[in-house]
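Quick start: what a row looks like.
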Amino acid sequence: PVICGGHISTGLMDSLCYNYGLDAVIYSTDDGSALRLAEMGLVDILTLDDPVHAFMRDLDFQPLAYDYLVLLSPPGKDLDNLEAVEGKNFVEVPHSAQRLAWNTLDQLKIHYHITELCSSPYNALRMVQNSQDLYTFLNRSLTPGWEFFADATRHLLTSVLYKDHERLKDFLDYVSGRGQRIVEKQGFERI
């Protein structure tokens, strides 16, 4: 089977497939590209890092895990309160759950500047680690960081069965049942 989805959810699916014994081809990309591939019929299971995509398209999804976003700062730059975020430069990963962080900053009337874009959370992490003035929000399951917005950015990672095979249904049943111990070991919250 072919599994395609966001970088975070496909990383989790890789571990779940391995532990279940499902030999799958896994493509990691952004949610938008994954959705386009699924709509072309090239995907058996679609995974989404941001559940808004499933809601917007009225997809019949299955929860995989909960995660939340943490704020990452450049090396040596400590943030001890929300006011410290004011006016900072950020790296955005489009089609990711970062929209939750931007919405939260907007609601709190904290000014920020998106000065860099990249297609992968791993590239965003590298950019922040190698900078003096770039910040970003990434999934807690990927990296530790400042948990100022944990409650406001808590979200589901989801999967959608695009091709109806009994083995894939059994696998997704495993994911929502016994597989939740793997979910927890990978740094996510159980559903």
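That is the whole record. The longest strand covers residues 155-161. The helical segments are 7-20, 31-39, 52-56, 99-107, 121-129, 150-153, 166-176, 180-185.
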